[in-house]
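User: Now give one protein:

AI:
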Amino acid sequence: MIAITGLYAGLIALVFLVLTFRVIGYRRANRIGLGDAGDKTLLKRMRAQGNCAEYAPIGLILLALVEAQGTPGWVVHGLGIMLLAGRVAHGYGFSASPPVMNLRVGGMLLTTGMIALAALGLIAHALV
């Protein structure tokens, strides 16, 4: 069973929904149906949502595989916290006006660091 990953999948899904509703709300308030209509605020919100949709799935797949291989729970939680914190920090930092670059960069470092650690751990486990 991969119960720990389920926790982080649920939490990250909520982050994704918040980013999604920010796009939808902005579109409705500004009557923008398709694309970004050259609106930089909408574009930032769309990219924050898109970035989450691009990075979260691979992170969650790797987390589930790490957990399924019997990795200690504290390690799985550590990786899950890295991914969750990275997605929250990046989503907020990227879509804020003006952008909060420290959060954006820190969020990507946490996310890519989690992906790298999980990938290396899985490779090491497979080779032993």
